[in-house]
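User: Fold this; tokens only.

Assistant: Input:
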Amino acid sequence: MRTSSLVLFAAVAVFGAACTAAAGDESWKTIDANDRHVQDVALWAVAETDWASATGGLTLNTVDGAEKRFEAGVNYYRLTLEASSRVVAKYLRFQAVVYEEGDEHKLVSFVPIH
């Protein structure tokens, strides 16, 4: 009984890992970072983030990379961007994930990267 439980547990773990990998980064598609809509989404994300107020305001400099995922009628954008701060005299790099459904946007994450 104990051996069959371990085999079942291992099978479930492998299946779960396979499902996670299938739904992971492979579903993101690279898109044109210079596309006007991508630029608009990036501008919105920079204005929306708490980092903007914490650093005295952020200004979008460039979108260095852009990926898109379409899931259940919703667009998700994963953007690698560079912004500058009026207070911190240097360029900062961030990864932003934005949810877009119709005209509605939500900032899923906005994290600094190196």
